[in-house]
Amino acid sequence: MQAPRGSPVIVTVAGVSAYDQAIAGIREQMVNCEVLNVHEEKRLRDVLNAQGLVLAIAVGGDAVAAVGRFAPPALPVLKTVLLEWDLAGGGAQQHSGTAITVDMQPAVLIGELVRLFPTRTRLGAIRGPMQTESDVRLLEQAAHERGLTLKIVTCSEARDLVNRFLQFKSDVDFVWCPPNPQLYNSATLKPLLVTSITNRLPVIAYSEQLVEAGALFGGAPDFRDVGRMTAEVAQRILQHQPVPARVKARRFHFAYNQRVARLVDVKAIGLEEHGEDLRIIR
Fold this sequence. Notes:
The protein is α/β, with parallel strands linked by helices and 282 residues long.
């Protein structure tokens, strides 16, 4: 099976909401792209090595790794929906090309926190294996510029997450949990959120799904817009125009759980001023 000549193929893990949204954004501008699942290895290998394929768009870290394994080195690859940490992996280095990252800069998140909770000035953050010294410096700078005190606790193992989280008790108003698959998974998230509510220690999360599940507030990239950005870069590549090596997500959505706010006795203000980029979960 072969993609339409002159059209890119999209490689991804099927059934991941963020990836599906990004692909929908890509297809707003590139309707003929075939989508390949990384788990269908024979088909993936055949299509990636087909004569005339001009570009592969790898959506997510697993897709980048799969393209690294199966695609010929000369095939241009556009990598998207990645964390900066993903780019340190071997698969991300096997093909040169533009990478579109979705990390939320600390200043963006802290800006929203200060707007919604202006009287809460003590922020905690869990530093996991994926957070670098540079990440910590950016967080410290953003907190200082907005007048927040900051406490950082390091957690290297998922099994220690709840105990490390409780080290913030009485010292902070919120705990930010940046995305880190080595810490946050189906086995650790429920105990963390239960502990948060029981101890009235609100979690600031990295997805709307976690806010629905019991975090107080959180933000995530607008993945559909990331898809549109991806399509824009892909079209420039196909037209042999110069493209940057790195592009960062430009829009983010936020969510606020009013039920959790009541349980932890923290209330946001000025909700009506935040517009469509803030989803209120009642």
